[in-house]
Specification:
Chain B: Its main location: membrane. The complex is a heterotrimer of chains A (343), B (292) and C (235). Chain A contains 16 helices and two strands. Chain A is mainly α and 343 residues long. Chain A has a domain of 239 residues. The longest helix of chain A is centred in the first third of the chain and has 27 residues. Chain C is 37% helix and 27% strand. In chain C, helix 3 packs parallel to helix 6. Classes of the chains: A mainly alpha (343), B mainly alpha (292), C alpha/beta (235). Chains in contact: A-B, B-C.
Chain lengths: 343, 292, 235
Amino acid sequence: MTTGGGKSGESGESGMTVLRYLMWTVFAAALIVVLTYALPPFRTYQLATVGAYLCVTAGLTVLTGLNGQLSLGHGALMATGAYTVALVQDGLAGRGQWTLLVSVLAAIGTTTVVGGVVGLAAARLRGPYLAGLTLAVAVVVPAVASTWDETFNSDQGLSVVLDPPPGTVPFERWQAWLAWAGALVTMVALTVLVRGRFGREMRAVRDDETAARLAGVSVGRTQVLAFVVSAACAGLGGALFAVLAQSVSPGAFPLSLSLFLLMAIVIGGLGSLAGALWGAVLLVALPAVAHSVTEGIDAQRLEGNLPLALFGLTLIVVMLAAPGGIASLRPFRRPFARLRRKT
Amino acid sequence: MDRFVFLTFDGLSRGAVYAAFALALVLIWRATRIVNFAQGAMAVATAYAGYSVSAATGSYWLGFGVAVLAGIVLGTVTERVVMRFVDHSSPLNEVVVALGLVLVIQGVLGMIYGNEFRPAAAPFSRDAFTVGGVALLSRFDLFVFAAVGAVVAALALLFTRTDTGLRMRASAFAPDVSRLLGVNVGGMLTLGWALAAAVGSLAGMLVLPTELGLHPNAMDIVFVSSFTAAVVGGLDSAVGSVVGGLVVGLLLSYVSGYLGATVAPIAVLVLLVVVLLGRPGGLFGRSAARAV
Amino acid sequence: MSAPLLRAEGLTAGYGAAPVLHDVDLDVVAGSITAVLGANGAGKTTLLRTLSGLLPATGGRVALDGRDLRGVRVEEMVRRGVAHVPEGRGVVTELTVDENLRLGGLWRRDRADARRALGEVYELFEPLARRRTFHGHQLSGGERQMLALGRALVGRPRLLLLDEPSLGLAPRVTAQIMRLLRTLRDRSGLTVLLVEQNVRGALAIADEAVVLSLGRVVTRGTSIDEDLRHAYLGF
């Protein structure tokens, strides 16, 4: 899988770049706030969902695109974050908004630990073996929820207790703010990380492990770290999903969720954070479009299944036609993609 | 003790199916270095086709034949239309494309048949014979053993005793040399996919009656169990995959029987992790799951 | 001089954009041994790969017995009578000696003669007959070379493309193989295109030699000129 992003970030962290990130973030935040006032509640909720997805796709595209590790377990990592929020909120809710921050941080922490464990195993595995292991992790979620049903309440799942939003802010708008606060923090953190030394090391490991090792990069450490970072993002995304849905259950984190995430980052262009945004948008938009298409006709079986088939088809077509994703189709990226494929 | 005996036989019967399914994975892995992550979905699709024919004609065996035949067709099409054109420069590519196939197949099945569980009838009684008060095996279990045994024997004969088998092995090990010797390597690949998909379909027809029934996702867990079986066997070894299948079947049966059915997938995950980290080449193989 | 069995004209080929072979003309006379000599990277292996179709030519034409070989698939070559023994011998190490040899005759319609050819190879290479059930990776370098050569002979080729048969072999074994090639030429009229770095060994049996340098033919003939030998072959 050839991926983009190779030429960026060699310039170092000058004050200008930091300023530029800051301006972009402020601009994006302002845009989100404006949108939450302009859009009707349902659209605002969709916007919030994009934000939650973005945390996960951004983290996954760094792991898969820049470090070359394929994870099918990110749905399970999201579930970890979501369940943590549900459990912590159950104990803390009602004491003020700060409890939510604690819950989300706890979710990130738990997922980081789980991600570290999976990452330790993952760093020693390659290609299909890693895919198979993470697939097993994804499939095991309902079993875990049922086995420890006193904590996780098996298939029914848990409800997430939330304090009402401050002031007179409508609930959807509040949710969108929360989700996008998380998404923007993720994007800034990942951008800084990817452009720095760690990003270079990740790409070096992806391109040629032996060469990276000879250049003094600790391959195992880089891979575990990449997995941990990616897992933390997935945990945050999962936590935000719990806040959005106000409930968690194994059914919300099926294997297909992990496959959707993968599709989103492949189509967006592996390794591209901007691509992760497009992927997140697609994850929300495609089912919505399919829903509105099938609404008129009496075909309830199409609902849910049509996007599934479309996602799969898009994934295959993109992989066969442009393995670098949509981003690699842009004309100015082409020479680089070609160059890399040749070597 | 009675329970242990029963669980052992039950585990061997399940394991036989995992063995067949793992064998199908190994067939494709050996020929192409691809783990066919779509194999579960492909098997479900052919099972739907088979049960549709059974329902329409009233004949289980006609449906059974159709399912296996559909496997051959689906395997051929998958290789000819999709897999052949995947850029092999990174092992991720094939995995991603196979997962795309999973989504397509599950989506299409859902559109045609809906997402409810449909009953998957067994051709023989699943009531176990009892010997001296101990429940041992059902007629269906015997059928499973016979079918899997026949498949394993047929494949062994094909690969070790026939010219076509020699061509297939040569194509897998040394494609360029094989082409120079006049072997149609592309055709051998297609044949490998067709065979593997047919074996996968057969395994699907054998496992679905023992699970909850037909569902687009019905084989997800079976795939993970069989992948584990193949990894236990080393992914490169046909004998290993059969042994691996039996090991996984027994493990699942004991864990389900003594600890509860919900724990079974967790046990498979643990086994997979232990094997991958402890003995990544599997018990029989020499291939490298890990970096050197 | 009779018409050549193999004729290449203006052959150009390579990997990616930069050609390795430039405008190579080559005639191989039936029943002769032609040696292709040259330093590392001269394009010798590329020439053989292009002739057998493993590498598509980007320019020029190749004809066997006057019939154009362009567009003929690699799998078809063996049916036209061309056997290519690749560098590194191409023994399928996971298969047994017997399976490797059988593989060489699988394409043949005449099953009886394929079996007969198999028997002849076992007579020709006595050590192989004793190791029928050994796997390729259990053989010595010399035995592997015999196996690769024998496997090609099972197909009763008219033209044998042989890539560095002496690579990594003891001088005694190399001499054996060279002698054998000469015997095959004399007895059955086999035509051989022999790529070699072992110049002395190759010239000792070759009827004609072609010297490649940087992908171009710099000289050819029945004897190699003293100066050129110095310049391109280093002795």
